């Protein structure tokens, strides 16, 4: 192998590299490939869009032909670390190219804007990446000093995996109603302020290991519940409503929200039994037992007739408590390898 040269990314490099690299070796590499682009200093505001993010991208050439590339860039939603990704053509691996690209990218982080340094606590920000367990990328990350920050799994829960719970009591219990005026299970518009607030706080709570930027209700709605995000519908589980004037007086407000399930696909086909992608979570102020009970009950409901597909992070304690026993009994299955978020 001749002496390699390194230069900034140029327009058209993607066509050359993708032809040489072939298909991506997993979902994470496929996603990261979209980050390769010319260097950018980002926007001046504190929450730049992905297209306007600060970014440095380097290409390695062998006799004038691009064979590898690396990119480091900011993410507005998780500003404490920078994302980094390196890919090397298969026939050029184990030659130190990836290590050299990573070294050069680390050097480039010394000139980050003040907003990035401030979000990182001052100084040079640390790095993070995503790899699939058992992959070449995972081995490279470990050899480069990256440790595990979070583990994530895609899990499909089969129909009827959990016994359908009885919500409330009385004549309406079998339908999920506590009484005629206070439903415990409710279809809720994805534009609901109550739902957007609950989803935003839940996201922040399960990402304490990589703290997100402040999430307003509007921002949470845009990211997780809008048409652009692919949100199709939502169902929530509520606590029984309680009247401020005693048991003999009908409550004027609905019970507090305990858990939510947001669908990101159309209704599953009964013939094809295609799972619907669902974000499952709970009100973060619930105690551990209540959160687990609410999540388990709502999962049983949404997966009663059709399979659902969940992303289960290790930080999602209540969701794991519902899903892990199903994996053990075979009524749920993991799809693909684990995704590992790693950082230096």
TrEMBL record:
<dbReference type="InterPro" id="IPR000182">
    <property type="entry name" value="GNAT_dom"/>
</dbReference>
<dbReference type="InterPro" id="IPR016181">
    <property type="entry name" value="Acyl_CoA_acyltransferase"/>
</dbReference>
<feature type="domain" description="N-acetyltransferase">
    <location>
        <begin position="4"/>
        <end position="165"/>
    </location>
</feature>
<dbReference type="GO" id="GO:0016747">
    <property type="term" value="F:acyltransferase activity, transferring groups other than amino-acyl groups"/>
</dbReference>
<dbReference type="Pfam" id="PF00583">
    <property type="entry name" value="Acetyltransf_1"/>
</dbReference>
<protein>
    <recommendedName>
        <fullName>N-acetyltransferase domain-containing protein</fullName>
    </recommendedName>
</protein>
